[in-house]
Each structure stands twice: as C-alpha cells, then as structure tokens.
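Working notes for the structural subgroup meeting. M.R. asked for a predicted model of this chain before we commit to crystallization trials. I am recording the input and output together here so anyone reviewing the notebook later can reproduce the run.

Input as submitted:
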Amino acid sequence: MIQIVIALVISVAVLIAVSRLKLHPFFALLLAAMLFGVIMGKPFIEILTSMQTGFGSLLQQIGFLVAIGSCLGMVMEKTGAMAALGTKIISAFGPSRTVLAMSAIGVLVGIPVFCDSGFIILSRLIPALASTSTPSAQLSLALASGLYTTHTLVPPTPGPLAAAANLGATLHLGLVMLIGLAGSIPVAGVAYFLSKRLGLKIKTLAHETTTTETDPHPALLIFLPLVIPILLITMASLPTLISGLQSWNSVLQIIGNPAVALLIGLLFSFLLIRGKQKTAWPAWLSEALKDAGIILLITGAGGAFGSVIKSCGLDVLLKDMLSTSQANGVIFLFIAFGLAAILKTAQGSSTSAIIITSSILAPLTSAAGFIAPLDLATLVLAIGGGAMAVSHANDSYFWVVSQFGNIAERDAYKSYTLITLAQGITAWLVSILIFLL
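Returned structure, recorded in token form:
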C-alpha cells in the first residue's frame, strides 16, 4: 500500500515539475507513467504494453469526437458565426442586461469552441457595449467566465469528453452532457454575480473601438450547428427513461451516437459558408485537425498513465479504504476535485488536469462505488470543478483574458482568478448535491 502511494505521489510530482520546465504534456505523461511502473517494480516491457493498451483504448473511444468537434468549432469561428451569435443574443437580452448576455454567450459558445479563441473573437463586441453604467471589465469577466464554464464542464470539449471516456461513461455521454449543463447553470450564475461586483472596481486599459460588420447569417443557421448535436445526443438517452420510445431506440441510438451527432452538426455548419469562404474551408478543416491531433496525443498519453496505474492494483487499495456509502462517495468526489485542482493550479492547463485526474481515478471508480452512469457523470463534474480552480499566470487563458479584455495583470488576479476559484468550488458542491440526491 505504501509503495503504491509513494509511486503515485512521486510520479505526479515529477509530472508537475517537468510541466513547469515547459516539456510538452504528451511526453510528461509518458514519463510519469513509466516512472510509476518502474517504482512499482513492473518489468519495463509490461509497462510499455500497458501504456500502449491504454493509449489505443482511449483514442478508440474519443478520436472521432475530438476531430469532428474541432472542425465544427473552427467553421463556426472562421465563418463569423460566433460573433454573429453574440450579437443576436445581446439583442435578445436588451441593452440593460448586457453583462448577463455576455455570460450567456460564453456558456453557449464554450461548448464547441476553445475558450481562448472564443474570447479573442467575441471580445471585439465589448467596446461597443461598454458604457458608464456597464464597465467593460464586467463584460470581459462575464464573457471569460461563461466560456470557461462549459469549456471545462460540458462535452464535446476535449477535457470532459476525455474524462467521460477514461471513466467508462462514453455510452452515456448524453447524461454526462446533461449533468454538465445542469452544473453549468449555478457555476455561470456565481461567475455572473462576481463579474458584476468585481468588474465595478476595475478600470480597464484603453479599448480600441471596432466596427461590427453586417451579419449575413440567418439566426436559425447560427444556432443549428450548436443545438442539433446536443439534442441528438440527449435524445439517445430517452428510451431508457421513457418506455414509450423503445420502438425508436435503434434509430435514436444511431443519430444520437456522439460521432454521428457532431458530424450532422458539422454538416449544418457548412451552410454558414459564404462567398470567398467556399474556397477556404478545406484549409480550415486541416487546421482544425492539426489542433485535434495535439489534443488526442495528450489524451492518449493520459490513458496510458491510467492503464499503468490500473495494472498496479491501486483499485484494491481504495477498496480497502472506502465502502460504497454516501459519506465515502462524497470523500471520493473531494479527492477528485482536490487532485484536479492541484494539477490545474500547478501546471495551468484545465484540459490536462481533467485528463490526468480522470486517468488516475479511472481504476478506482468501482471500488469507490461509482458504477452507475449518473455517478460517473457526477464524478466528471467534480473533476471539471477542480480543473477550474484556479486560473493564474501559468494558464494561457489567464493572459488571453487579461490582454484582450484590457485588464491589468494585478486586477486580473483580484477578479478573474478569484472568480475561477468560486466557479470550481460551486461545481464541486453541485456534484455533491446531485450525488446525495
């Protein structure tokens, strides 16, 4: 038992240390996996075999999803649909609720699009919306925290998607999405409240005024690529809840398959392509697939790490420590949150923190009593909450928010970093509430 704990502590410590030295997370994870196996005394060939098995198994589950989802987000970005979506939501909320509108925009756009690129593009809306009654800092913080919420909590963004795969919940991805969306409401609500309050105290740097182009996209076309995949994936879970839909089960399972649903959403996104863009879109997909490749390598390496841990009997250790009682289930959710928070705070990447934490905990879920799909979805939410707390100087998104939101570094620490801490704790508390109910 002591040997396993020591091996885990040392390998995670080395993982954090080499990440600080700017070694790519892919190699950092492989190194940590090898080190864990060596400390446990496993033959090196067995370690490599276990790593290859874990790597391939995880990519088999989410490879298509990450690739297609990345392409969908890229088309939404390049066609200008993201900015158009923001404009339409702001118009719907009205001029007196612009902060709330920016939060809602972030929550929606953060589902298919990386929060970094989403903020860079949508922050162009802020100068035109800021006023004496609505400081631009409030808008920037609301947008940043909204994007951060669903990017960290809701598949098909790579982090929660990889966590679902690591924990064996891919077949229940619709439920994971529903729990993630349910958790996103209070998390975004807390972030909205703090954005309004903390943003009042911040004087932003000078904003460049921008002119918004006339939106060529009908509102329906903008929302369809986002809404259709979510609806289809969710519908695939309905026959298990509503007996009257059993006759439609085979059809719903096909169109609600996450890969098929995202592919349908991608096809609808092609309707957004206009004019000269019709010759440029193949290059967009190539760029998106390159980004997806990096994500998949990191995700697969996380799976390799988890496979080595599983082969060393850590699940047996946890089974001796925890029963399946609710109290110990809460303890396990705290462990998930705490480990993700440590990794996030230490190395900066929410996605890496989610992947690594879920890889480490995957062999332990059964021993902790997390077997039911709802329990696994709740665990994904707790891990995502930990991976939100906190964003600071070693997180690239922190600097995107600071620089493009024109918020001084010192003020970003006092506002945005504090908001991410509150978001993470809220997500964890919601996961406990769902688990207990």
